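Structure (tokenized):
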């Protein structure tokens, strides 16, 4: 088996993604490591588009018997795959957290990117979903008391450890300045997190950019152990740094967090994870 040469750092791709990446619909399918150690999962790749594979942990090694059919980039728990041929089929063996996972890659026509999520086990994703119910009390509200003078309140923590924020950004591909960003928010804490799309601000040079956002699943609350993934599409971006800031709220405690990312619009795909 011939190992695919990959590096865990950003590198230039010889093929820029087509405009359809920004306009096409992301196809989401979930596999489980417990199954993949025995039966290969089918991964579809279309020429001119990128297939994204997101794992529950860091990818340590990967290999294919026909590496010449593919271009593969890996960073942390994410793999990006693009085809170098119009058609073909090969294998992909990925090692994650000591487990050897099996895949069959099929190259054929398509009209957009695809995204696959690989979880450790079904038990993790099918755990009972806790529901937050605000406490109700018949007691009268306490009378507000004057606050004692003291240190000013601290700002919301930036990029807290309890939330993993992974982004993959595609650079502008035409004069419209289209930028596409795949993202994943994973709740590693023990409380539900609210990720309101209205609290996501994207700016460039101090000016806010318009964007559209697709989420999978379509919800705002992320329970402990769950993840929220989606696609952000920007229009009118210029070469240079683009800043993302997403305000999250921890349900129950009311604590607020700020997730921040910067991507550089240029001539490469950028991968950044936490």
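Design, position by position:
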């Amino acid at each position: 088996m011939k190992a695919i040469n990959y590096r865990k750092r950003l590198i230039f791709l010889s093929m820029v993604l087509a405009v359809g990446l920004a306009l096409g619909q992301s196809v989401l399918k979930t596999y489980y490591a417990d199954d993949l150690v025995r039966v290969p999962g089918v991964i579809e790749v279309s020429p001119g588009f990128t297939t994204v594979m997101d794992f529950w942990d860091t990818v340590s090694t990967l290999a294919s018997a026909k590496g010449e059919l593919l271009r593969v980039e890996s960073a942390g728990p994410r793999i990006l795959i693009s085809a170098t041929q119009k058609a073909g089929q090969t294998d992909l063996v990925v090692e994650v957290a000591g487990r050897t996972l099996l895949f069959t890659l099929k190259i054929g026509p398509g009209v957009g990117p695809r995204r696959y999520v690989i979880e450790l086990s079904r038990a993790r994703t099918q755990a009972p979903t806790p529901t937050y119910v605000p406490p109700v009390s018949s007691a009268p509200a306490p009378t507000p008391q004057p606050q004692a003078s003291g240190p000013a309140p601290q700002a919301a923590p930036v990029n807290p450890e309890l939330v993993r924020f992974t982004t993959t950004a595609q650079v502008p591909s035409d004069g419209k300045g289209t930028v596409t960003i795949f993202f994943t928010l994973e709740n590693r804490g023990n409380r539900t997190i609210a990720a309101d799309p209205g609290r996501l601000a994207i700016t460039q040079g101090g000016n806010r950019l318009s964007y559209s956002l697709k989420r999978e699943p379509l919800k705002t609350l992320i329970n402990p152990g769950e993840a929220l993934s989606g696609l952000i599409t920007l229009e009118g971006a210029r070469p240079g740094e683009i800043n993302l800031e997403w305000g999250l709220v921890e349900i129950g405690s009311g604590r607020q967090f700020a997730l921040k990312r910067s991507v550089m619009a240029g001539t490469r795909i950028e991968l950044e994870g936490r």
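Reviewer-requested clarification: The longest strand covers residues 240-250. The first helix runs from residue 20 to 23.
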